[in-house]
TrEMBL record:
InterPro entries the record matches: ICDH/IPMDH, IsoCit/isopropylmalate_DH_CS, IsoPropMal-DH-like_dom, TTC_DH
Keywords from the UniProt entry: Manganese, Metal-binding, NAD, Oxidoreductase
UniProt keyword annotation of Secreted present: no
GO molecular function (one): magnesium ion binding
Gene3D superfamilies in the cross-refs: Isopropylmalate Dehydrogenase (3.40.718.10)
Protein name: D-malate dehydrogenase (decarboxylating)
Annotated organism of origin: Streptomyces bathyalis
EC assignment: 1.1.1.83
SUPFAM superfamilies given in the database record: Isocitrate/Isopropylmalate dehydrogenase-like
Protein family according to the UniProt entry: Belongs to the isocitrate and isopropylmalate dehydrogenases family.
Protein's UniProt keywords contain Cell membrane: no
Cited PANTHER family: D-MALATE DEHYDROGENASE [DECARBOXYLATING]
All copies of domain Isopropylmalate dehydrogenase-like, residue ranges: 7-356
Swiss-Prot/TrEMBL catalytic activity: (R)-malate + NAD(+) = pyruvate + CO2 + NADH
Length: 362
């Protein structure tokens, strides 16, 4: 029988994004290859796009005019990382990644913290405590709504004024919270921690708190807590075993998830999904890390964040057993000590990729 085929748009973009997308594609293709002949056989049909900072330098645009329209037809987008020192970061990020997230209403950003065997966490607690939590980031509004202006006051250089506003809507808060509660119901620990800074930000974040209280009433079986973001960053370090699902605004969750992935050993391990849960548009899967210009092009990039993002993509396609196979291969590889430099090893991107592929067939 013909395997179920998923059409994937690969957008490696910049720096290590190119290296980890190549690695992720190789591992995902090996997984698909291994499914041949089985009842749930599947395949990937990839198309790769050249957008990013190099493209910007050539054309003056981060993505071509019809680009977003073309992406619409794919089952998913597999993204690397965008950003390069030759282009201001706010131009590259808004011009490509945030544009895709916002156009395709990918309002739920899922970022599981990956504590892996063989990878040392800077947390001593991680040695003998099972740590497993996920950050749910509101991905459509909040502090990244892009609302504001600069130098509109007419004051000259040296006295410039800028305003950057955060946007919170009841609909936006409610949908991300329901998403977090629904996810909590699928986990061993049914708990949602809501994060704000509502003591200082008395409009948007108080709305967030109010919606959280209202929504939580619909989930009496799920434990809840509301924690301020400063206290939550301390809790990530001191009491992470008390966390299961952490839901936070765009900026707060962005920062907390970098902290969480650093605590698991490296930013290079962290996977993420930018979901359009209604499936009106393709969702996008990408490692949490950026383009890492400091190590780009040297074969040093850790591919595990990108490969783990592939597992999230398989979950999204309704292939949880395949996702589990991929995660198992990641654990087998790290447990065997085949690690890139960021997690204390000396293996290259290519060696880790090969080990992941070997682990799939063992
Ligand atoms: P970064 O995530 O690129 O790098 C931070 C540190 O983590 C660096 O020391 C880097 O070497 C290390 N690192 C990152 N990924 C790694 C991997 N796969 N393996 C091993 N080590 C890894 O963040 P930074 O330096 O703040 O930003 C660099 C560029 O990336 C900027 O242009 C920024 O705007 C962009 N960026 C893009 C993101 C995206 O496309 N989603 C997310 C974050 C940053
Ligand atoms: Mg970030």
């Amino acid at each position: 029988s013909t395997p179920r085929t998923f059409r994937i748009a690969a957008v490696p973009a910049d720096g290590v994004g190119k290296e980890v997308v190549a690695a992720g594609r190789a591992v995902l293709d090996a997984l698909a290859e291994g499914s041949r002949g089985s009842a749930d056989a599947f395949a990937f049909d990839w198309e790769e796009f050249p957008w990013g900072c190099g493209y910007y330098e050539r054309t003056g645009e981060m993505i071509d005019a019809g680009g977003l329209e073309r992406l619409k037809d794919f089952d998913a987008i597999y993204f690397g990382a965008v950003g390069w020192p030759t282009v201001p970061d706010h131009i590259s990020l808004w011009g490509l990644r945030l544009k895709i997230c916002q156009t395709f209403d990918q309002w739920a950003n899922v970022r599981p913290m990956q504590f892996l065997p063989g990878v040392q966490s800077p947390l001593r607690k991680a040695d003998d405590t099972h740590l497993d939590w996920v950050v749910i980031r509101e991905n459509s509004e909040g502090e990244y709504a892009g609302l504001g202006g600069r130098n509109f006051s007419g004051r000259g250089q040296g006295s410039e004024v800028a305003v950057q506003s955060a946007l919170f809507t009841e609909v936006g808060c409610e949908r991300i919270m329901r998403f977090a509660f629904d996810l909590a119901r699928t986990r061993d620990r049914r708990k949602v921690s809501s994060v704000t800074k509502s003591n200082a930000q008395q409009y948007g974040m108080v709305l967030w708190d109010d919606v959280f209280k209202r929504v939580s009433a619909d989930y009496p079986d799920v434990e809840t807590e509301s924690v301020l973001v400063d206290a939550m960053s301390a809790k990530f370090v001191l009491q992470p075993e008390d966390l299961s699902v952490v839901v936070a605004s765009n900026l707060n969750a962005d920062i907390l998830s970098d902290l969480g992935s650093a605590l698991s050993g490296s930013l290079g391990l962290a996977a993420s999904a930018n979901l359009n849960p209604e499936r009106r548009f393709p969702s996008m899967f990408e490692p949490v890390h950026g383009s890492a210009p400091d190590i780009a092009g040297q074969g040093l990039a850790n591919p595990i964040g990108a490969v783990g993002s592939g597992a999230l993509m398989l979950d999204h396609f309704g292939l949880p057993e395949q996702a589990a196979r991929l995660r198992k291969a990641i654990e087998t590889t790290t447990a065997a000590g085949i690690l890139t430099r960021d997690v204390g090893g000396s293996a290259s991107t290519e060696e880790v990729t090969k080990a992941l592929i070997d682990a799939l067939s063992s």
